[in-house]
């Protein structure tokens, strides 16, 4: 009996050997896993160190202006932007004094604004008449400088009410740039325009807010944005409107663009024959897509675009033509390359176009070419926007590019033209 139990309790040698081998393999596997775990922890430690370094670089780069080769051109250029994305950085190159006093200039007219109305929370303030804003002190706000000597201005540095006023003032500046002076920075009107816009919006909303250097510099961004808005529309349209194809040989495209740019041939309905002056469809199309996309757009809601019933302002046409010139310049090599709508480059084209428009108007008084064109541009744009038609009441430059032959040819050509029948 005892022998039977001893035999049953003994382990088969082969089985024991198998168990020992399995135990050794398991131990080796555990050792391998421990080594891999240690290596993984080492890799994770290195990754964490890299992440910390990258985050440190990101923190240093925050707020630094990113230079782009050209504006991002979504077709809908009125995309809503969040407050903190408006942190475009400007330099205070002229090193203003700590406090500057600007005499109050005349208000911008008329009182229309392209900014949508936003309900305001009534601020806690003493009741009484709105104080006079004849003089507003500009107090410089010291902003931290992550690097360099350039002062940075951000929308996030302003209070909620200040942001609201700045946005409305930027819209007023944009309308001014589109209809009166496309380059207030170069004509010395930038600071005055910022002050005018701030004062008008503050008075309209019955707000008593201090006009700071930060607000002044952010307001002037409205001019750059408006110019880029026109340029974006031109960039998206010139390829189709001037029959420029990507698949064409570079040499062919380059010659085509050179001919369009030569003597500003792109202003003609037929650039080759130079007939149909200021009647190329690109002019009307860009006007429509920039300011008259719908009845609530800037054109139908701001009387400046009708110029007292005389039609689209000549400044608006000159800016449109300068934007077309820049968009064509992007194809000058035979393939499209970004070209910035730089002030010092394209302001001269803007001025030449404006002078030529004025010269043509003076030289063709009897034919009434320019007044008819202006009213036709406005009427067509309002129809495109499906907006009510506004009441339209009638009312030798060395820097121009039109020769005497061009002027006489325009007079002859326009004698029998009826814009209601012969559409641009």
TrEMBL record:
Protein's name according to its UniProt entry: DUF6532 domain-containing protein
Coiled-coil boundaries: 16-64
Pfam families assigned to the protein according to its UniProt record, in alphabetical order: DUF6532
Key words of the record: Coiled coil
Entry keyword annotation includes Coiled coil: yes
Keyword Cell cycle: no
DUF6532 domain location: 172-359
Stretch list, region Disordered: 100-130
Domain of life: Eukaryota
Organism in which the protein naturally occurs: Candolleomyces eurysporus
Taxonomic path: Eukaryota, Fungi, Dikarya, Basidiomycota, Agaricomycotina
